[in-house]
Write a structure and sequence with these properties.
Length: about 160
């Protein structure tokens, strides 16, 4: 079971995360995530910790199947929250799709993949050296002309660019 402090319960929080956060979808689920400022410690312990909520609609199946999917997702998320460091201001909504009931073995891998994608989109994930060099350049800026291969230019592109001048 997820600790009470790690559960999303307020419908306004769910709505805010789904509308304003980032999203990553997989075949069995969709993960919505957003960052909020962690509550200062003097305002209450556990208020700023990462929180997770689940949405499992009737399209997933009958009540037995929906509850089974929720239990599986809670178990996977609990293990993730305890085994890996998670940002205190992270808020996550996991929305199960109908395939979650049909392909339960894919839930863990799909959740990990979508969670990681959301963290990267929020700027929390570890970026690779190649992506950090792309992030440093201004939007729309081209690669350095000193290395045409890194810009993805072929010799035909270089020849046509030389003729255009």
């Amino acid at each position: 079971m997820l600790p009470t402090a790690a559960r999303l319960r307020d419908s306004r929080e769910f709505r805010s995360i789904v509308r304003h956060g980032v999203r990553a979808g997989r075949s069995t689920l969709v993960v919505h995530a957003d960052l909020v400022d962690p509550t200062p410690p003097e305002q209450g312990a556990g208020q700023g910790s990462a929180k997770v909520g689940f949405v499992v609609s009737k399209k997933v199946g009958n009540a037995v199947m929906r509850n089974r999917v929720k239990r599986r997702l809670r178990h996977i998320v609990r293990d993730r929250l305890t085994s890996q460091p998670v940002n205190d201001g992270l808020r996550v909504v996991v929305r199960a799709l109908p395939d979650a009931a049909r392909q339960p073995r894919k839930l863990a891998s799909d959740l990990d993949s979508a969670w990681h994608t959301c963290e990267k989109r929020l700027g929390l994930g570890a970026s690779s050296p190649s992506s950090s060099s792309r992030d440093a350049s201004a939007p729309g800026a081209s690669k350095s002309a000193a290395d045409p291969a890194s810009a993805g230019l072929t010799s035909a592109d270089l020849a046509s660019a030389g003729n255009a001048r």
